[in-house]
Design brief:
With 231 residues, the chain is α/β, with parallel strands linked by helices. Helices cover 44% and strands 16% of the residues. The protein has eight helices and seven strands; from the N terminus they run E-H-E-E-E-H-E-H-E-H-H-E-H-H-H. The longest helix has 20 residues, at 139-158.
């Protein structure tokens, strides 16, 4: 299953994935440019993006296109991994889900549908905690974001793609999403086969060549011994 946790900025997407992965054991890291992870593996679960800098610039915020996301997720899904990802950019599209459905994969969306006023307050609190500066995000911005997310959700339902609209309070929605992540990823897929070091390197190349990043720099930074992808 390829699971997208989505929602407005500040709704708890990164918190959901970070709290979920805190209960798992890391096995490998797929490195990206400047030693920022493209993905982290937890046995048969691959979490895309970077959480080393959590809560700032977490998840797939450094990905610059749907092509980059699809290339990376496909590489893991074809080897039987469950894939999890989140990003504000990928909350506002249904293209990846429609593509994966056309390939007989299993896309799934967990939408943290939080009241825009609550989200604005959460972002203000986080801004003060992280920078000491108050974030004056207007609730009206969140209302527009929520309307767009509702349209995307409705499209997914029409296309018979698994999607959950998680509401109530911020904490309740995050807890519900974490529980669903555990439910969907508890059992390994029957076709799960751990990637080899060579396959991980090939997946890194295929992912980064969809962007302007230089694979040659990765070679210089990472291929210094035979344990490129070991923790």
């Amino acid at each position: 299953m390829i699971i997208n946790v989505r929602g407005q900025a500040g709704s708890g997407k990164s918190t959901t994935v970070k709290r979920f992965t805190d209960t798992l054991t890391q096995t490998h890291v797929l490195p990206g440019d400047k030693q920022v992870p493209l993905a982290t593996e937890y046995a048969h679960v691959a979490v895309l993006g970077n959480y080393r800098s959590y809560p700032a610039q977490s998840g797939c915020d450094q990905f610059d296109s749907n092509n980059m996301l699809i290339a990376l997720a496909d590489g893991y899904a074809q080897s039987g991994y469950h894939v999890i990802y989140e990003s504000m950019m990928f909350s506002n599209t249904t293209q990846p889900q429609l593509y994966w459905k056309s390939k007989q994969m299993e896309p799934c969306v967990l939408w943290l549908d939080i009241d825009p006023a609550v989200v604005a307050q959460q972002r203000k609190i986080r801004s003060v905690q992280n920078t000491g500066i108050t974030n004056n995000l207007k609730t009206t911005n969140g209302i527009l974001d929520r309307q767009a997310l509702q349209r995307h959700y409705n499209r997914l339902i029409r296309e018979h793609i698994t999607a959950h609209q998680l509401q109530n309070t911020h904490i309740t929605a995050v807890d519900q999403a974490i529980a669903l992540l555990h439910t969907y990823t508890q059992q390994a897929n029957s076709n799960y086969t751990p990637l080899t070091a060579e396959q991980r390197w090939d997946l890194t190349q295929r992912t980064l060549t969809t962007t302007t990043e230089k694979v040659s720099k990765l070679q210089q930074d990472w291929i210094k011994n035979n344990k490129w992808f070991e923790l």
